[in-house]
Each structure stands twice: as structure tokens, then as C-alpha cells.
Amino acid sequence: MLTKEQLRQLQKADYRIFGKNMHSAVKLCHWCKSSIKSGGEKICYKQKFYGIKSHRCVQMTPCLPVCNLACKYCWRDHSYFSRKWEGIDKAEEIIEGSIEAQRSLLTGLGGVEHDEKFLEEARNPNQVAISLDGEPTMYPYLSELIEGYSKRGFTTFVVTNGTLPDAIEKLKVLPTNFYMSLSSTSEKMFNELQNPLGMASWKNVLKSLKLFSTLKTKRVIRLTLIKGINMVEPEKYAELIKLANPDYVEAKSYMHIGGSVNRLKFENMPSHEEVKEFAQKVADALGYKVSDEQKASRVVLLKK
User: Fold this and answer.
1) What distance in Å separates the CA atoms of residue 251 and residue 181, rounded to the nearest whole number?
2) What CATH number corresponds to the domain at position 140?
3) Distance separating alpha carbons of residues 260 and 263, to the nearest angstrom
């Protein structure tokens, strides 16, 4: 599915790609490394908001090159995205491969100042974020993947773009936290900003929002806010979020990194204060409250 040159570029970017069909990958999160090096003093907002341990979290994907959107704000390189599978690894193979890959990447922390206790704990992860790249609901064994991690004592976070409501509805096992990204307020904005490919559509996004309200797990709507583009109509975001009736809403700044620097400007990245101001407007229209924030990640948490 990936060419030798694409694999080389991804490995150069510190992706550890694994599996017989080479469509799964792990990449050490910045906050995982920071937590290890600081002995837990520097942590990601997911630990602050939801109680997971940053240094014991695996950031991975079972569908590295498979996505049905080409969002302008995505930090990934769209050139290797595909909507087709060419051989699919089973869930158990991916789970074992991800843990092994994480441990291998942690070896690279040798020689760098870090906390030995946290490094040892990191070698036995207990949280997985299925969000690194691609669209996870396009992986046909997502239920088995979630269940397999859960049986190993992991909490699981899954992030979906919401374009495949049928795949969401067919999930037999749900993650601990189920995220749905919402970055547009209309079909026009969705088509221009998120560049749907194939069968992806705004109609499906709306269907997924309604479906989200029925899911028996912790549900989070994620807003990726881009200054000058989608930081508009907070009341419209509220209307759409009400369809999903989530437990939480995360309002987070677009970050001017990776492939996105070729599509957007540095000025499109809002400050934390701008994110917080917009999040408050959404909260007021929604009837939620601002319950937490992390300035380093420019993210604000809204809660019922």
C-alpha cells in the first residue's frame, strides 16, 4: 500500500510501521516523552481531563494510509492516503505489534535525561489512542482491536471523522472514550475545508452526530479551530453538537505543523485565549460549562 520512498519518509518522521501488510504504525507522542523525562510533571491534556497516564499511552493507527478525507488542517501528508485496502492484518497481530513497536521506540530515549520509574512503567502501556493517522472506522476489525486492548487492561480512545455512520453503528465493542471530530458548520465548509473523497459526505456526518447520542460510552466532540476559516457561528456548532449530546466538547487550536504548513498559514493558528473565548460562546449556546483547559496545547474542555 505504501511505496518504499513513502515508508522511508514516515520512518524518518519517527513512525514505527509494522505488520505483514505495513498499514499499522506507532509514533511516540510528544507528551509521552515529556512525561517520562519530567517524571510526570509535564503531561498531556488527556491525562488532565480524563485521568489517563501520558507516559503509558500508545499513539497508534491500524490504517496509516487509509482515509476518506484530505483536511487542509491535517498535519499528515495526504500523498499516501488511499481509500482501498491491499491486504489487512488481523487485530491481534496489530495489538502485539503496537506494544512491541512502542517498547522499541522507548529504547531511543536512552541517553536522554528521564525518570527511570516512568520509563519502566511506559514499557508496560495501559492506554491506547487509536488516532495517529487515517480513519479508524475504515479498518474492518476495529471492534476486535478495541476488545483485544481492553482484555489486556487498556483504556481505549478512538477518534473518528464521522463520515462512516454505518461502520460506527456496527461496532460490537465501544472504546472508553469515543471522539468525533467536528470542524465545519455546513456542507459548503465541509467540502472546502475537509475535501471529502469517495463516499464521504456532510450527510453522513450529520447521521453520525445523531447516532453518537445513542452510544453507551464516554462521548467527546472535538472542534479543531482555525482562525479566519471555521471560527465562526458558535451557535451553529452548538446546534450540531446538540445532535450528539456528548459528555464533553474539546475546543482545540489548529496547530501549524507537518503537512498543514503547505495548505494553511501560521496566522490561521489561534491563541489559547482566542480558543477559550470562542469555546465560551459555544458553551453558552450549548448550555455546557468550561470545566478545564491546558494552555500548552491550546485546548479547552466543555462539560455538561
Assistant:
1) 10
2) 3.20.20.70
3) 5
* Closest CA relative to residue 253, chosen from 280, 225, 276: 225
Task: Tell how strand 16-18 and strand 24-26 pair up.
Answer: antiparallel
The tens digit of pLDDT for each residue in 218-259 reads 999 999 999 999 999 999 999 999 999 999 999 999 999 988
Q: Tell me, what's the pLDDT at 65?
A: 87
Contacts for 282 with CB less than 8 Å, ≥ 6 apart:
223, 234, 237, 238, 241, 249, 251, 288, 302
CA separation for the pair 204, 57 (Å, rounded): 31
Total domain count, the chain: 1
pLDDT at 111 (0 to 100): 60
Strand ranges (DSSP E) for the chain? 16-18, 24-26, 57-61, 127-130, 155-160, 177-181, 218-225, 248-253, 289-294, 299-303
Handedness of CA 61, 63, 69, 75 (dihedral sign): positive
Domain around 100:
4-303
3-state helix, strand, coil in the chain (%, to 5): 40, 20, 40
Give the DSSP per-residue string, 255-279.
---GGGGGTS-GGGS--HHHHHHHH
pLDDT in tens, 20-36: 999 999 999 999 999 99
Separation of alpha carbons 178 and 217, rounded Å = 7
The reply to whether the predicted model has a pTM over 0.85 is yes
Q: How far is CA 143 from the centre of its chain?
A: 17
Pairing relation of β-strands 127-130 and 155-160?
A: parallel
Three-class SS state of 10 = helix
Alpha carbon distance 51, 45 (integer Å): 9
Specify burial of residue 218 (Cβ count, 10 A radius: 0-12, 13-18, 19+).
Answer: middle
Q: How many CB atoms lie within 10 A of CB 9?
A: 15
The low-confidence residues of the chain, meaning pLDDT below 50, are none
